[in-house]
Amino acid sequence: MSAQERIWDIPGGIHPAERKELSNRTPIQQAPLPARLTLPLGQHIGAVAEPCVVVGERVRKGQKIAEATGFVSAPLHAPTSGTVSFIGPQPYPHVSGMLAPAIVIDSDGLDEWIELTPHPDYRHMDSAELLALIRDAGISGLGGAGFPTAVKLTARPTQKIHTLIINGTECEPYITADDLLMRERAAELVSGIDILVQLIQPEQVLIGIEDNKPEAIAAVGGACSERSYQVRVFPTKYPSGGEKQLIQILTGVEVPSGGLPADIGILCQNVGTCVAVHEAVVHGKPLISRITTLTGEALARPGNVEALLGTPVGELLEFAGLDRSKLNRLIMGGPMMGFTLPSLEVPLIKTANCLLASTAAELPPPPPALPCIRCGECAEACPASLLPQQLHFFALGQEHEQLKAHNLFDCIECGACAYVCPSSIPLVQYYRAAKAEIRELEQKQLKAEHSKQRFEQRQERLRRAEEQKEA
């Protein structure tokens, strides 16, 4: 292996049972058209979208139904044709069972598209035009937290992107959506990468894939044969697909604590996001569907489907042969970073890469947590080189300054520490709660400082007014 093709290891990591064979043996199927679609307005990081349709309005497939409301936001489009029947609170895929603002569309069964405007000759377009197409298509990251893609691609004058990394790792157990996408749609993937290259002009493109996906590796390698893009294959280990971890594996460079990949000239995009970019630019199609893994031992026919956003997850599971008598837990995402859904009524959203319908034997509940014995296994497993046991104690004591000093916010919440903990302590739950507490306190402090400034400015205006009166 040449120095140019070298890969690096990351600290820690674990090797849980992969269970990918449940869903990676059959082609992607098209999920049935549902009678009703529920589209939450906040399927991305940032400001929620604002409805631009009204109840009773007929919409067509691909029509914009909600506008982005800020720089960090994303619009929303109708996944099929039909009538807007409700706008307001609806069940949302969240562990709390919360309701969130959404647009409900009753399908008319016609699946009638708006008139699309494809741009197969996009190479003559400038960056602003390409970014506008991606932004207007409502694309947000399909492999992570759903950060609006156009924002991530927006050039920053002080940050030259020299390396574009395409993430095809998919390291979480059970999930195979990206694997099947790379196998079946490698040409579309490479087309999407071409568009990103046109946009940001990187010096190199690295495509990272774990070695447990031989068919995907062959397909992507073949599709890249006439380009300089490098397909880098590396040993399977969880959580190699974390953005910062993948950067370290492929380049040997660490993203600074508290920093972003762009700070070191690197940009990462998920393979599914690249295909969505291809669809938006080349075919003029907004993001209205995604490939999702349907898996778990409570399903008779696990596999991957391309499903419309807003489809009730219960309907997707029924399509995969759900046996409700076997279903113990329904998880959106994987067993490591996913969360339990309280209901089958919640809709599929942009970030939902997997629905895991598990039996009680498959994912048994953890035993009661015991006191920490300071064995240090969690520190050995941590891919961010943190001290999970110390963070746990600081979180218990609400020692926020110590938590920040020990880089709590570098934790990617991968769950490796909890996985190896012999005391079965749900460590990630403590870290999430502590992060939320710190953010809330910082927001309150910021609000108080703004109020103080406004008060002082008002007092100064009153003082000057009094002085002018006396003069």
How many strands appear in the DSSP assignment? 17
Uncertain runs with pLDDT below 50, 5 residues or more? none
Radius of gyration: 24 Å
CATH architecture of the largest domain: 3-Layer(aba) Sandwich
Described by strand count, sense and barrel closure, the largest sheet is: 6 strands, mixed
For the biggest β-sheet, the strand order reads 1-14-13-17-15-16
Classify the secondary structure makeup into a structural class.
alpha/beta
The CA-CA distance between the termini, in Å, is 83 Å
**CATH superfamily placement of the largest domain:** NADH-ubiquinone oxidoreductase 51kDa subunit
Overall shape: globular
Helix content: 25-40%
Number of domains: 3
CATH fold call of the largest domain: Rossmann fold
CATH class type of the largest domain = Alpha Beta
Binned strand content: 15-25%
How many helices does DSSP assign? 13
The overall pLDDT average reads 96
H and E order: EEEEEEEEHHEHHEHEHEHEEHEEEHHHHH
